[in-house]
Design a protein that fits this description.
- The protein is mostly helical.
- The chain has one domain.
- The protein contains five helices and no strands.
- The protein starts with 5 loop residues before the first helix and ends with a helix.
Length: 86
């Protein structure tokens, strides 16, 4: 495997340093999509939301509550809380 350039190393380091922000942005985009989706697409979006919440290290109890209710409003409030807007 070829060695990485300094530029590539910096990109990789910055990606992992900002991974929480990236996941939070992805989760906020999922909220809007969940309001509009129906059927199987909605189920896939909830699965994606679960993965994002796990990567953000949200307690499993909170994840379970949001996923049991399946209300995008709850997920939106959680995203606001995680981003520090509350």
């Amino acid at each position: 495997m070829a060695e990485r350039s300094r530029y590539q190393e910096r990109l990789i380091r910055n990606y992992y340093k900002n991974q929480d922000t990236i996941e939070l942005d992805k989760l906020s985009g999922l909220v809007g999509d969940l309001y509009l989706a129906t059927g199987k697409k909605q189920e896939r979006l909830w699965d994606s939301a679960r993965l994002c919440l796990e990567k953000l290290k949200v307690p499993p109890v909170r994840i379970g509550h949001v996923l049991d209710e399946r209300k995008p409003e709850l997920l939106a409030r959680l995203v606001e809380e995680l981003s520090g807007k509350t």
